[in-house]
Design brief:
Metallo-beta-lactamase domain-containing protein; globular; UPF0173_UPF0282_UlaG_hydrolase; 7-stranded mixed beta sheet; about 250 residues; RibonucZ/Hydroxyglut_hydro; Metallo-B-lactamas; alpha/beta; 7 helices
Length: about 250
């Protein structure tokens, strides 16, 4: 499999002969206001331009997978740019109705064995914040990919490190894990996704897995940089299996 970092939490997964775009945030730099009650209120989102044109992001995509519908995971630019006949996969019926309201014709809820060709996708446990933020942050989902000729891939999505992630690692035994680890958080309620310390915890719980770290340096409420993850991984002795790509960079043959 190949995984390309686009920007923020937007990645492209080439897996089992299919090309899957995850959480497309496609607007121009600064087109959205900062997330409130968080750090860097002087910065508008997204913080950087896309590394290549929107048309290139969408080229050859077989399906779009949405972990949830927050603006930094699908924005108005994405709703406008994605072809209306594209297949979109969502976590639940509420998200399906919202996405369909934007005019899309093929929106489906991921089940126990949703398939894109020979690629199987199923949901995994996720929690978008601690007990204070769990409900304000809303529902989100992780996803697990399997294919006869590919390693098992676990896309954790926007989740904190908690018992559900540990259960996912034990249940699915993924060989490749994509982690949203920008430490996004708010002044009240704390972080709503993992941070650099959690990358080390996941690596310890899945000692044979490779980790692809994303959702870094993309929006104003990020608190973790690529360099922070790199230093943390180096100290922990896991830098050889932790990938921290720049925007536009592809990690091949995972």
């Amino acid at each position: 499999m190949n995984i390309q970092q686009v920007r923020n939490a937007t990645i492209i997964v080439e897996y089992g002969g299919k090309k899957i775009l995850i959480d497309p945030m496609l607007g121009k730099k600064g087109c959205m206001p900062p997330f409130p009650f968080s750090r860097n209120q002087h910065l508008r989102n997204p913080l950087h331009e896309l590394p290549f044109p929107v048309e290139e992001v969408l080229k050859g995509v077989d399906a779009v997978l949405l972990t949830h519908l927050h603006d930094d995971h699908i924005d108005e630019a994405a709703y406008e740019a994605i072809p209306k006949d594209m297949r979109l996969l969502v976590q639940d019926e509420n998200d399906r109705q919202v996405v369909m309201s934007h005019g899309f014709n093929h929106v489906e809820v991921v089940g126990d064995n949703t398939r894109i060709g020979e690629v199987s996708i199923q949901k995994a446990e996720s929690q978008h914040g601690n007990f204070i933020m769990k409900y304000p942050a809303g529902h989100t989902a992780g996803y697990v990919f399997t294919h006869p000729q590919e390693k098992t891939l676990y896309h954790a999505g926007d989740t904190i490190w908690y018992a559900g992630v540990k259960r996912n690692l034990k249940r699915f035994r993924p060989e490749v894990i994509t982690l949203n680890a920008g430490g996004n958080g708010f002044r009240l309620g704390g972080r709503v996704i993992m941070n650099d310390e959690d990358v080390v915890k996941v690596a310890a719980a899945a000692p044979d897995a490779k980790l692809f770290v994303t959702h870094l340096e993309g929006v104003n409420h990020n608190s973790v940089t690529r360099e922070m993850v790199r230093k943390r991984a180096e100290v922990a002795g896991i830098l050889d299996r932790v990938f921290i790509p720049e925007d536009g960079e592809t990690v091949e043959d995972l």
